[in-house]
Specification:
The chain is α+β, with helices and mostly antiparallel strands. 44% of the residues lie in helices and 21% in strands. The chain folds into 3 domains: 207 residues, no CATH class; 106 residues, Pdz3 Domain (Roll), CATH 2.30.42; 63 residues, Pdz3 Domain. It has a 4-stranded mixed sheet. Helix 1 packs across helix 10, helix 3 runs antiparallel to helix 11 and helix 9 crosses helix 11.
């Protein structure tokens, strides 16, 4: 128990360090550019909240806040940011004017430093590689849910999907050229799914499924209710179970049962649940040899209740490969993924809405899950490439308060040949800051629901509610 708690604390510290590094490096870009262009720098803070340490050096107040989330640099000549950075300690009107070019350089510097950090992380990932699970790299269907749109259209396990909605695919999950994303991003009543089976290419039209969701949950997006092919590898055999009695071992690969091949462990689990009292013959591959092993399910304790099982635990990642994409490829894929997400949110016909994005809580949760895996640091560095590119692009959106907003205001100033009225600027900045803070709270509301203990409680409440949709997966 103590070791588990210590591990959780260590993972949380890793998440905190990496997440804060992304923000602080971004703000450092603004800071160094402001120094170079001669702007007045009022404050440079790491973390927010009441300072637990602060010191003024050469007119700049450096501080360490009490809330360990990110950082900021206060540049009164750039734009009033009182709602985020606190009220300025001086009269901005008395500060010397700076050129529109200086403002643009300082605003651009933050996203540029985020891209530099992305390239740095990408270089490390290129050198050490990052693990890719079998399910993420294949387009072969491993399991088709009973009664799903895909099953009704004729899609079967073992089919190799070639394109979805007219777009070629090369992997099951992810944002670039993936089955899952092209399904989510489709907008028609039916989706064209092109696949290869026994050397023949076929195309079927599938009507996507959308689960019903309660008002306080994220809205469901389109699904085909299919799962990728993953080699069913036994990770653990439970003592005194039917599997142990039959001689199954960790590392055994279950290629099928009862003369039926399987492409995903779910197929075996489903068969056992539907045939709890029937003996079945597993077709096992062990060290290159093929074995037929009979085993009969028996009720075993699972999640607090007795269920028919044979007593094995699967290696959930299946066969893992280590890939070494070059830095340019990683950054390019991250840019295209971010732009695709923005395009999806902007499209009125898309299922992807603002509520489907992630804020600090959601990002922290992803980092936590990545660090829990065996190669957590490699995965976290790979994800940091994506996140830094995301941070750079989103900050360049032409919205006041964001870096892109500062650039737009500076361009307006260069055209008008005079700065935007300070009072007008304060109203614009404050209004947009309130909207962004409100949006972050909105996103956090949904992110919190993804935390395990919150999700469990909400699921229990929904299960107790009348009219619960029994088909929700």
């Amino acid at each position: 128990m103590i070791l588990h708690i210590a591990r959780v604390i260590f993972i949380l510290l890793e998440v905190l360090i990496l997440f804060n590094l992304l923000i602080v490096v971004h703000e450092l870009g603004h800071f160094l550019a402001a120094r170079w262009r001669g702007l007045y720098i009022e404050k440079f803070g790491v973390w927010f909240g009441k300072p637990i340490w602060k010191k003024t050096v050469n007119g700049v107040q450096y501080s360490l806040g009490s809330l360990p989330f990110g950082g900021f640099v206060a540049l009164p000549q750039l734009a009033p940011m009182d709602i985020i950075e606190g009220k300025a300690d001086l009269d901005r009107a008395k500060l010397p004017k700076i050129s529109a070019l200086d403002k643009i350089i300082v605003a651009v510097a933050g996203p540029v430093f985020s891209l530099f950090l992305a390239l740095f992380f990408a270089g490390i990932v290129w050198a050490v590689g990052h693990p890719v699970s079998e399910g993420d790299s294949t387009t072969v269907v491993g399991y088709v849910m009973a009664g799903s749109p895909a099953e009704k259209a004729g899609v079967q396990p073992g089919d190799k999907i070639l394109s979805v909605d007219g777009k070629p695919v090369r992997r099951f999950m992810g944002m670039s050229d993936s089955i899952s994303w092209d399904v989510v991003r489709s907008e028609g009543d039916k989706i064209a799914v092109k696949f290869q089976r026994d050397g023949k290419v076929q195309t079927v039209w599938v009507e996507p499924y959308k689960a019903e969701t309660r008002g306080w949950r994220r809205k469901s997006v389109r699904q085909l209710l299919i799962y990728p092919a993953e080699t069913p590898i036994i990770e653990k055999v439970e003592p005194k179970s039917p599997a142990a009695a039959a001689g199954l071992r960790p590392g055994d690969i279950i290629r099928g049962f009862n003369q039926t091949p399987i492409y995903n462990p779910i197929a075996l689990l489903e068969y056992i649940s539907k045939h709890p009292n029937e003996e079945l013959v597993l077709h096992v591959e062990r060290n290159g040899s093929k074995l037929d092993i009979p085993v009969k399910p028996t009720p075993l304790l699972t999640a607090g209740e007795m269920k028919p099982r044979i007593g094995i635990q699967w290696d959930t990642s299946g066969v893992v490969s280590i890939q070494h994409p070059n830095p340019i490829e990683q950054v390019y894929n991250s840019v295209t993924s971010t732009l695709k997400t923005i395009g999806a949110v902007a499209s009125p016909k898309s299922d992807v809405k603002l509520q489907h994005l992630s804020g600090p809580v959601g990002i922290g949760r992803i980092y936590y899950l990545l660090f829990q895996s065996e190669r957590g640091w490699q995965l976290a560095l790979w994800f940091s490439v994506i996140l830094n590119v995301n941070l750079a692009i989103l900050n360049l959106l032409p919205i006041p308060v964001l870096d892109g907003g500062h650039i737009v205001l500076a361009l307006i100033e260069s055209v008008r040949r005079k700065p935007v009225n300070m009072r007008v600027l304060e109203v614009i900045q404050t209004s947009c800051a309130v909207l962004i803070i409100g949006y972050m709270l909105y996103i956090t509301f949904f992110d919190v629901q993804d935390l395990p203990f919150v999700r469990k409680k909400l699921d229990q409440l929904e299960a107790q509610s009348p009219g619960k949709n029994s088909q929700t997966p």
